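User: As part of a screening pipeline, I want to sanity-check one entry by hand. Below is the sequence and the SMILES for 2-acetamido-2-deoxy-beta-D-glucopyranose. Please return the complex as structure tokens so I can compare it with the automated output.
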Amino acid sequence: MGNTSLSLRFTILLSLSFAASSSSPFFFSKSPSLSPSIPKATPSDLLSLLGPPSQSSSVNPSVADELKSCFKFLVPFTPIDTRKTADSKSLSYRRFLLKSPRDEENELVWWPPEPVLELARLAVDSGGDPGSIHRALDPTVLPVPDVEGSKENKCGLTRTPYGRRFISQELNSYLEYLFKLIVERGPSVGLKVSLTRYDLFHGHLFIATETGRLGILFHAKEYPAYDKDVFPINMGYCQKGSNVTYDDAMNLRNILWLAPLPSNSTKGWMAPGVLLVLDARPGGIIYKDLIPEYVNYVRTIYEDDLGSVVVDVNYLNIGDPQPDYQIFIC
Ligand SMILES: *[C@@H]1O[C@H](CO)[C@@H](O)[C@H](O)[C@H]1NC(C)=O
Ligand SMILES: *[C@@H]1O[C@H](CO)[C@@H](O)[C@H](O)[C@H]1NC(C)=O
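Assistant: Here is the complex for your manual check:
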């Protein structure tokens, strides 16, 4: 986010006084509490459930059930048999045997191309050092151009006014692939999303705290349109012109990708990659335990809660008038 714009995280802080002085009913008070015997879910529980059986089995079963009820997989979740850890040769062989395009798309999430796997292993082998990922970036600095009229609105969309790309072109293409797959498959779980500067244009790349697993937390519906009844929150320059409506799809704005989890003792893999929507519907355990109360109206899960944030990944339409989407890593 630039200094001339505000993202949901900060705007809502600024809106607190508004909330406090407002009698309007849309600021939810605490959601109905779940059974008091269920412990509070943690970000680590969430990540463990998406990991190998050795990790998921450590989560309290009631918490696990509640969390699973909030998982909306964009790619089927298939924990692997860890006894059959495949090397990359047999992975590409398996890919070669597959036929349907849908299977191939799934496979690219379960077992991404080699450069993605290398990055995932680097994250773990470095002991979760963000510098290990930073070093995979090309040092060339790319100014972020106008994005769909953002300059005219004085909207700075990205954390910095310039970005970079990975040295490996395949890594950059993979990031594009993830954005497109979310748009393509979102509707199957009720998330209609578009690649615009008001909706889906960024994700936060992180290294999970306990496991070193590489992930991206995408945030869709970033700038809902101001509406005096349903979304009376002024978010500044970047919100101007928004056509994103505040509705039930807001519950689905947090989308999580996790890279396959490398084994820390062998060359094998402990879990395949995952891609899912985290349903933050009021009353659900994600809304109740994983979303800070001061942002519950906008359902934001914070990337910092999942691990060390390495970079923001932006996919921006810098074409005019023809769309031209480019990756900017900030
Ligand atoms: C908003 O505009 C974009 C680009 O014109 C379009 O793709 C998208 O479907 C629109 N979204 C809504 C909710 O109307
Ligand atoms: C390897 O990972 C396991 C499970 O995540 C952990 O318990 C163990 O301490 C790790 N070993 C090393 C050498 O880091």
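Points to compare against the pipeline: Residues 211, 264 surround 2-acetamido-2-deoxy-beta-D-glucopyranose (ligand 2) (CB under 6 Å). Residues 72-276+305-329 form one domain.
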